[in-house]
Amino acid sequence: MNNRTKHPAQSYQRLTLFAIALMVLVGALIVILDWRQARQLAGNINWLLLMAALGFVAISYVCASASVVVMLRVFGVELDRNYLLRVGFISVVLENLIAHPVGLSLRLLTLGRNGVSNGKTMASSLLLSYFKNLIFFALVPLSLIYIIFSYPLFLGGLIIVSTISIILILAIIVATIIIFSKRIRTFILNLLGHLWRRLTHRSIDVSLAQFGNAMTEGIADLRHRPKIQLSLAALILADVAATIITLGLCFIALGVPIHAGALIVGFNFGITLTVISFIPGDVGVQETSMAGVFALFGVPFSHGVLVAILFRVLYYFVPFIFSLGFYWGIVRKAGKD
Known about the structure:
Blueprint: H1 2-39, H2 47-74, H3 81-97, H4 100-112, H5 118-150, H6 155-180, H7 182-200, H8 205-223, H9 226-253, H10 260-275, H11 285-296, H12 301-336
Helix pairs in contact: 1-4, 1-12, 2-3, 2-5, 2-9, 3-4, 3-12, 4-5, 5-6, 5-8, 5-9, 5-10, 6-7, 7-8, 9-12, 10-11, 11-12
């Protein structure tokens, strides 16, 4: 009997260790692939401003990690705060550097070992992602208005920007309806369960039901806790604001002039396009999209690319390298469990 109970635990332990090692390896490969371009920036940077930018990077990640903890608390996860902060920080780093599902996978593995149901982990992560993307997508119509009234774009550019804006606005409307309407969310989950059974001949109805119940309970709890709502809003807004300031300091550090409105527009479209990108690590997508939008406002494309590369180094590479020191604690804990 003991062998039967130990075997699943040992298998889960090996899976956790392997998954964490794989995540670190993929992140390292992305850093290495872009490092050649990053080295070209070394001789053209104002290092004092670079340090200031790193300070805002730290603020952004601290706020993002804290928002993970606050949202987990909403869903009833009462694990040690410092441990949750470490898990939140590493998962946010992986989300930014590689992809959102990778960060979610790490939370599922680490929190699952501590008795947190997958439904709660997934529901809290998706709800937090929704709120953060809501801020990004809310900037889309504001960005479009700024472009229309501040810069005379050619017809093709205006059509492209308008189309992207409409798609993103529709996406956030659909997401809002699914998240906050229990009836529609249940219908979608039942449909997904039916499709999964048809394709795989296996049932995931129990997991989907747990996720749906966790989401319903979490949203209901959040609605009755205005202080938590304010805390989450403040953390998410501070995270986004610190990120935008980091990008602005990258422009200044490289001596590239940029208007505040153009900075927000370029950041907005650069980030939102990476959200819908299917390229691991968004390699090249963010740099190209940001540089392309900045070019509409008179920033030479080559300068926009350099700024975007510097931003990637500061906001993605440096936190990843820093996070390597936290993996050992998680791996050691997984080995002891």
